[in-house]
Amino acid sequence: MPVLSPDLVPVLAAVLAAICVGGVVISLLYARVGGRSEADKRLAAIAIWDGPVGRAVGSEEGSRKRSIETTLRNLEEQQKAKRGVKPSLGIRMRQAGLGWTKKTYFIACVIAAVMSFGVALALFGVSSLPAIGFGAAGGLLLPHLYVNRKRNARFKAFTAEFANAVDVIVRGVKAGLPLVDCLKMIASEAKEPVRSEFKIILDDQTLGVPIDQAVQRLAERIPVAEANFFAIVISLQSRSGGNLSEALGNLSKVLRERKKMAGKIKAMSSEATASAGIIGSLPVVVTCLLYLSAPDYISLLFTTFIGKTVLAAAAVWMGFGILMMRKMINFDF
């Protein structure tokens, strides 16, 4: 049996490693490296086929389908272009329903920084330099977290009420009312924040903005899936025609099914949420109990440099663990 030279072993190992890495890269990026898949080629062949059935579809119904496909493609491209853009501070405050200006936000940042600095000095007894760090962190994080919380709460309130607003539009359209009159009913009788958002749609329409563009602005102000679906339905109906009441009725069913799914997910993940809360609170509870039962034993963590370092490292790793558990029990659908 031939024996490999010791000089060839590293070369062969490098070649095998390169082949393995190349195989993994090609398997992950096959759709881009190998061009279109067989399914895409078959769909393209069917799309350009000009047989008897293909010519039959080229009637009025076929042109309407092509118009719908074009509209959907344009809307998808617009959404992709806007999806990667993060909202500015002013947009986030408007989405949160806060009447703040940027000056007000910066004043809140200064107040939060001063309060964090005072709390660090008074309660934790740290020196001036760490207290300045606490103050800077509080000034940057606390107003940001407050705006995010108000923003998410407003989105949830809009989602909970939006299905009822769509039902009002469906009943009004079936009764023969124009779409604008249905929007006026929602703008005067619905709950907040749906009422104020539809009032903005009517104001834009009064100023001459087409109704489909005014509804698309709703999806920009409230970037949730429900508002996006509504904007797509109105845009398709205004550009391609069709039965608006049927389309909105289907949308209402979809919104209510999404609401049911959200309730099921919340119920199924409640046990994991409770477990995460218990696990996250255990270190704090155990520390408090040890401080009450054996203060001399646990006080080393607060009085010595090594103890403070251990506390800081434990807090960082505990934060990572809490964020990981939160990521595991949050479902996006």
UniProtKB/TrEMBL annotation:
This is Pilus assembly protein. Keywords: Cell membrane, Membrane, Plasmid, Transmembrane, Transmembrane helix. PANTHER family: INTEGRAL MEMBRANE PROTEIN-RELATED, PILUS ASSEMBLY PROTEIN. GO terms for cellular component: plasma membrane. It comes from Microvirga ossetica. It is a multi-pass membrane protein. The chain crosses the membrane at residues 12-33, 104-123, 129-147, 268-292, 298-323. It is found in: Cell membrane. Signal peptide: none annotated. Pfam families: T2SSF (PF00482). InterPro entries: T2SS_GspF_dom, T2SS_GspF_sf. The keyword Membrane applies. It comes from the Bacteria.
